[in-house]
Each structure stands twice: as structure tokens, then as C-alpha cells.
Design a protein that fits this description.
CATH architecture of the largest domain: 3-Layer(aba) Sandwich
CATH class of the largest domain: Alpha Beta
Number of domains: 2
CATH topology of the largest domain: Oxidized Rhodanese, domain 1
Helix content: 25-40%
Mean pLDDT: 89
CATH superfamily of the largest domain: Rhodanese-like domain
Largest sheet: 5 strands, parallel
Oligomer: single chain
Number of helices: 5
């Protein structure tokens, strides 16, 4: 395989969400337009997280290769005039409102877009797992007329998931913010 030319390599091995994205954001700011950043990460969640971040910001996600458990992400910096300034999905719901709805016994369609391990260690009651990186290929599992509350760890992956769903004709979706990091209620676990 040909060696890819990169302008900078960012070592993120051993770091978990959101650190690969945080470090990538800082590193990309230091590059010139058109330069390529290689991000090396061992967190499987980085696959979805960095693709989501590039879609949100407008930088170009060139591709991914995996070698010996290390994910090599390639991201090209685009001109600042082409960037999306971290657009946010406008329809949100707070964790407190989710807690109130759950306490009232209301049946909620909660879509958890975190990675399977995150989901297994603790999720909102009755949440369904569809990782963000699999969402587009699993849309057939969802009903376009159903109301969904989409959650992730911090609200970032769920933000993009909500926009993806809306683009595909799902009009009753809300991003649960700020995500599982701030949830203090009951959780279901597989572990």
C-alpha cells in the first residue's frame, strides 16, 4: 500500500471521547488550508466521532484505515470561508424533561447513538442502540413518523444523528442534551 502524505500526525492512542476530537480541533487550527492531518486513535468511538466532527465543521474527512487496532483518520483542512460553524440541531430536549417523561410512565422512543460498549455500561431505560456510524445503514429499523429522542455521551454525535434523520425524512426527532455524562437517574446495564 502506498504511504499517504500527511502534513502532521496527531497521536491520540489511549484517549477516549471526546479527547480525540478536542485534540483534532486544536491541531487543525494550526494547519494551513489544504494540509492533511493524520489522527491516530485506539478508541473505536473515534471512527464516528471524527466523521461527525468533520461533517459539522466542514473539514474534509478523506478516509480511514485500521492497522493493529489503531485507527488512522485523514482529515484535510478547508478554507475558513467553506466552514460550517458547528451548526446545532434546533430541536432539543433537556435531561430533566426526559426524566419527567420517564417518571410519568410515558413510553419514549430513545435512540442511543453511542458505541456498543458505552451503551452496555449504562443507558436510559428502554433506549435502543444504533451507533452513529451505523445509523444510515439501519434506517429501515426506524419509523419516519415516530418521535425519537436521540442521545449520546455529550450531545455531539446525537446532534449529527438528528440532522441525518431529518435529512432522511424523520421529522419528529429531538437531541437530548447534554447527554449521558450528566444523567443521574436510573440506568439499564448489560455488564
Amino acid at each position: 500500500m502506498r504511504t499517504l502524505k500527511v502534513d502532521r500526525t496527531l497521536e491520540c492512542e489511549g484517549l477516549a471521547c471526546p479527547m480525540p476530537v478536542v485534540k483534532t480541533k486544536k491541531a487543525i487550527e494550526e494547519l494551513n488550508t489544504g494540509e492533511v492531518l493524520e489522527v491516530k486513535a485506539t478508541d473505536k468511538g473515534s471512527v464516528a466521532d471524527l466523521q461527525i466532527w468533520t461533517k459539522r465543521t466542514g473539514h474534509q474527512y478523506i478516509g480511514l484505515k485500521e492497522e493493529a487496532g489503531v485507527f488512522h483518520h485523514y482529515i484535510r483542512k478547508v478554507d475558513s470561508s467553506e466552514l460550517n460553524e458547528d451548526a446545532k440541531f434546533p430541536h432539543t430536549i433537556s435531561l430533566e424533561d426526559i426524566r419527567t417523561k420517564l417518571a410519568s410512565g410515558k413510553e419514549l422512543n430513545i435512540l442511543d447513538v453511542r458505541e456498543p460498549a458505552e451503551y452496555a455500561f449504562g443507558r436510559l431505560p428502554r433506549a435502543v442502540s444504533i451507533p452513529a456510524g451505523e445509523l444510515e445503514t439501519r434506517l429501515h429499523e426506524l419509523g419516519p413518523d415516530t418521535e425519537y429522542y436521540v442521545i449520546c455521551r455529550t450531545g455531539s454525535r446525537s446532534d449529527l444523528a438528528c440532522r441525518t434523520l431529518t435529512d432522511k425524512g424523520f421529522l419528529k426527532v429531538k437531541n437530548v442534551i447534554p447527554g449521558m455524562t450528566k444523567w443521574t437517574g436510573d440506568v439499564e446495564q448489560d455488564i
